[in-house]
Design goal:
The chain is built from eleven helices and six strands. It is an alpha+beta fold. Keywords: Cytoplasm, Developmental protein, Differentiation, DNA-binding, Meiosis, Nucleus, RNA-mediated gene silencing.
């Protein structure tokens, strides 16, 4: 007799869908490990809707259910079907990538450096100048803009910096050494393909100079391992480390500092879209990591360094050999940066 579907199964499906909507796809086989810590922290009242779903499903299945299920109530046939679909999707994506068909156009770029000890350091931000959109993508781009950053579409973009110039400045920013190996860049998982694609496109167009090794890694994985390391050094009972990379990513995606004063650029402040500003995001991620890991090491959080205070000044920087302007920020601070 097949196993009865458990409330936890329906909770897993909901968590899986929410993450898929954010561009983060997890298989059913991965979901138990991801959803278990969240489920354990829920109250009886919060679990009640899922218990009702399980009860209704059990009544419906009594007369015809014959599938073999895992201990979490996941049908093995569903796992197999999902694995085949995922394998096919990955195959098609690799073929598209190999054929040069995967391409992203960035509208905004923000990057900064920070440390647990000194807080936020240098930063840079710019809005891109896009000459045109790929054929057939106007409606999708218009909808995305309306729902998020509200940046005008080509040919009416407000940015003055080309993607090429922005990436070149970003490469300079991350301090490439004499061997042309740059400090790694970290971003949220669903942004990694975009960042890698844009960088790859710019670097592939270079005709002079040695190849540049610019690595892009998961910010969630960085936080997961960093929190484990700092918690081992904690001298008092501080918040425990994350049980999984998924939970570290969930923590970063909370948007704790999305509406903090002074994080967004002038354009998004004026448009009242501060939570969708790239500058807000990178500063918010840095502050979130410091807030999670800093206390483990006994670091005193100082406003303006380790947590938001107020708007900080920007200066416009002319990019060599081009007529465009690149907005860069050396965040004002009394600290001495350590690289």
């Amino acid at each position: 007799m097949p196993k009865k579907l458990q409330p936890f199964y329906f909770f897993m499906l909901e968590v899986q869908k929410k993450n898929a909507d954010l561009g983060k796809k997890y298989s059913l086989r991965e979901m138990p490990e991801i959803a278990s810590p969240l489920w354990e922290g829920m109250t009886k009242e919060e679990k009640k809707p899922y218990e009702e779903m399980a009860s209704r499903e059990s009544s419906n299945e009594k007369s015809f259910s014959t599938g073999i299920k895992t201990s979490h109530g996941v049908d093995y046939s569903e796992i197999e079907k999902e694995q085949k679909a995922a394998a096919m999707e990955e195959k098609l994506m690799k073929e598209d990538d190999a054929n040069g068909e995967l391409r992203y156009d960035a509208a905004e770029l923000a990057i900064l450096e920070f440390s647990l000890q000194n807080g936020i350091g240098r930063g840079m931000h710019t809005l891109m100048c896009l000459p045109e959109l790929p054929y057939g993508y106007y409606f999708e781009a218009k909808r995305h803009s309306s729902d998020t950053h509200d940046l005008p579409l080509p040919p009416d973009t407000v940015g003055k910096t080309t993607i090429r110039d922005a990436i070149i400045e970003a490469i300079k920013f991350v301090n490439c050494n004499d061997e042309d190996v740059c400090s790694p860049i970290f971003t949220i998982d669903n942004h990694i393909p975009v960042v890698r694609s844009v960088i790859k496109e710019v670097l592939s167009s270079r005709t002079l100079g040695p190849p540049i090794d610019l690595r892009v890694h998961s910010l969630s994985e960085l936080l997961f391992h960093l929190k484990n390391a700092t918690h081992d050094q904690a001298t008092s009972d501080i918040a425990p480390p994350f049980a999984s990379v998924f939970l570290a990513e969930t923590y970063l995606n909370r948007g704790t500092f999305d509406y903090a004063e002074g994080l967004a650029c002038e354009y998004h402040e004026a448009k009242d879209r501060v939570s969708h500003c790239s500058q807000t995001k990178v500063r918010g991620w840095a502050y979130s990591i410091i807030k999670s890991c800093g206390p483990d090491l006994g670091i005193e959080l100082i406003s303006g360094k380790h947590e938001p205070l107020a708007a900080l000044a920007f200066e416009s920087l002319k990019i060599a050999d081009d007529e465009s302007f690149f907005t860069a920020a050396d965040l004002e601070s009394t600290i001495t940066e350590s690289n």
